[in-house]
């Protein structure tokens, strides 16, 4: 293994603390500095995670520290300008939070920036590294459910906030992207949305995704999505998926468990499995796994990253197809979305 990759983290808000912990706990990234417009947040983060230097100016931080890797944990509403500023310094690697942006136009602008850069760009779709989703993926790969035919999911949050996580996970589980999307949407008040959400996404949406090979996924996203009683007091964790195959049924509930019931065909047999998880992303473990895979890529130990920019762009094309479908009241081919 090569030496730890010199790193700068930009953004020290609540989510930034998870990234700072994951980087601190890894021996493969050496955080030289943190940066935030709010100097007190930057200093508190530096003190908590033993980071030697603090900045309030992005360009100064990246120019002076010359990091190989930059982690960007800034609001989704200011993505393209900040990403462009970081990539102008030509780091080897950039990781930033999801969603990529809050409009597809800006997502496309960022895609142009990424294409023009030599940096490896990763988007923090960390859900797939949690034991609940990863375990369901293992059962699907092992054919315990047979051929997956239908997936039904729900989340209390919207198409950008949790929908991007959901679609990314579906694409990962099914090893592909849907061919067509059909969606119905309602716009209005949502108890969990702030201003930018209310401007760009429905308060409630129902998506039907048709994948190659015949698998279909239906996902309800919004305040009227079904309750998940185990997380009655945590609406952000009311996020679940049920997968039905020719030989069985599997499920995950975010931050709770994965389970599967599968048959043995005409010969009988079959069984039941359940794996409990100790809450959502405990101690930033899912985010840490994302960084471990990124380090493998940077060290030349593997080529692919399941959360690379290409997978995030594919996710956003599905989200845009859903919004267009809801507006037009007809199915939209994902290939028609740039």
Explain this structure to me?
By secondary structure, this protein is of the alpha/beta class. The protein folds into two domains: 5-123, 3-Layer(aba) Sandwich (Rossmann fold); 127-281 and 316-332, Dihydrodipicolinate Reductase, domain 2 (2-Layer Sandwich). 34% of the residues lie in helices and 25% in strands. The protein contains ten helices and 15 strands. Strands 14-13-12-11-7-10-9-8-15 form a nine-stranded mixed beta sheet. A six-stranded parallel beta sheet has the order 3-2-1-4-5-6, sandwiched between helices. The protein is globular and about 60 Å long. It starts with a strand and ends in a 5-residue tail after the last strand.
What's the topology here?
Layout: E1 5-10, H1 14-25, E2 29-35, H2 39-49, E3 53-55, H3 58-65, E4 69-72, H4 79-87, E5 93-96, H5 104-115, E6 120-123, H6 131-141, E7 148-155, H7 163-174, E8 180-186, H8 195-200, E9 204-210, E10 216-222, E11 239-245, E12 248-253, E13 257-262, E14 271-276, H9 285-298, H10 309-328, E15 332-333
Parallel strand pairs: 1-2, 1-4, 2-3, 4-5, 5-6, 7-10
Antiparallel strand pairs: 7-11, 8-9, 8-15, 9-10, 11-12, 12-13, 13-14
């Amino acid at each position: 293994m090569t030496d730890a990759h010199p790193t700068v983290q930009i953004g020290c808000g609540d989510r930034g603390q998870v990234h700072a912990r994951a980087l601190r706990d890894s021996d493969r990234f050496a955080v030289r500095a943190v940066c935030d417009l709010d100097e007190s947040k930057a200093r508190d983060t530096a003190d908590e995670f033993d980071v030697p230097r603090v900045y309030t100016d992005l360009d100064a931080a990246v120019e002076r520290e010359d990091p190989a890797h930059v982690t960007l944990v800034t609001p989704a509403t200011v993505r393209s300008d900040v990403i462009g500023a970081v990539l102008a310094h030509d780091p080897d690697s950039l990781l930033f939070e999801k969603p990529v942006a809050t409009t597809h136009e800006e997502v496309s602008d960022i895609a142009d920036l990424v294409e023009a850069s030599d940096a490896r760009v990763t988007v923090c779709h960390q859900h797939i590294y949690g034991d609940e989703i990863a375990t369901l993926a293992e059962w699907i790969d092992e054919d315990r459910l047979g051929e997956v035919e239908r997936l039904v999911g729900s989340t209390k949050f919207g198409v950008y906030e949790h929908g991007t996580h959901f679609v990314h996970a579906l694409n990962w589980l099914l090893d592909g992207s849907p061919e067509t999307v059909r969606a119905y949407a309602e716009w209005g008040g949502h108890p969990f949305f702030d201003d930018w959400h209310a401007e760009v996404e429905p308060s409630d949406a129902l998506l039907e995704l048709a994948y190659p090979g015949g698998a279909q996924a239906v996902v309800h996203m919004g305040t009227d999505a079904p309750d998940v009683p185990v997380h009655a007091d945590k609406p952000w964790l009311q996020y679940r998926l049920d997968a039905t195959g020719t030989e069985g049924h599997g499920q995950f509930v975010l931050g709770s468990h994965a389970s599967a019931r599968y048959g043995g065909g005409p010969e009988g047999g079959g069984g039941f499995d359940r794996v409990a998880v100790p809450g959502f992303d405990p101690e930033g473990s899912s985010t840490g796994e994302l960084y471990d895979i990124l380090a493998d890529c940077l060290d030349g130990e593997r080529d692919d990253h399941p959360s690379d920019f290409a997978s995030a762009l594919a996710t956003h094309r599905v989200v845009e197809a859903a919004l267009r479908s809801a507006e037009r009241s007809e199915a939209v081919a994902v290939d028609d979305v740039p």
